[in-house]
Specification:
Blueprint: E1 15-21, H1 25-35, H2 45-50, H3 60-75, E2 80-88, E3 98-110, E4 113-123, E5 129-139
Antiparallel strand pairs: 1-3, 2-5, 3-4, 4-5
């Protein structure tokens, strides 16, 4: 967890991350159980191959959780994750490093909330951007 960020200290263009993670097959089973998403393409190699994939694929929701983790780690404990969204542009596979990063795109005040809008993305080990999205965090004000 990063030190606490304050709204007044954030600048448009500031970078977030990177957060590098390598999803594992064990994580796939845990994620299936926790999320209730038991679609076999995420843990059964024979099923995935029959569906036209070279191997089992990472859950999209797991990648969205990684994007949310990037935002929450960056904002600090007194921040609040107001919104996160992802669009999946490519398939990722287990046991391959994924790099999640982001950038501040705007700061604004919405009522009592001091908001920071960010772009987030995930690149695979070949540098291909497989997930894009964004989020809004609310930070404390000095």
């Amino acid at each position: 967890m990063a030190n606490q960020r304050f709204f007044e200290d954030v600048r448009v263009g500031e970078t977030l991350g990177p957060l590098v993670m390598t999803p594992t097959r064990r994580q796939a089973v845990k994620w299936a159980g926790a999320s209730g998403d038991y679609y076999e393409i995420h843990y059964d190699k024979d099923f995935a191959i029959a569906a036209g994939q070279p191997d089992v694929i990472v859950h999209g929701a797991l990648k969205a959780a990684v994007a949310a983790q990037l935002l929450t780690s960056w904002m600090g404990l007194d921040g609040f994750l107001k919104k996160v969204s992802c669009r999946f542009k490519g398939i990722d596979f287990f046991d391959v490093a994924l790099t999640c990063a982001g950038q501040v795109t705007a700061t604004y005040v919405d009522g009592d909330d001091h908001c920071v809008a960010c772009e987030v993305w995930i690149d695979n080990a070949r540098g291909e951007r497989t997930t894009v999205g964004g989020g809004v965090v609310v930070l404390p004000s000095r």
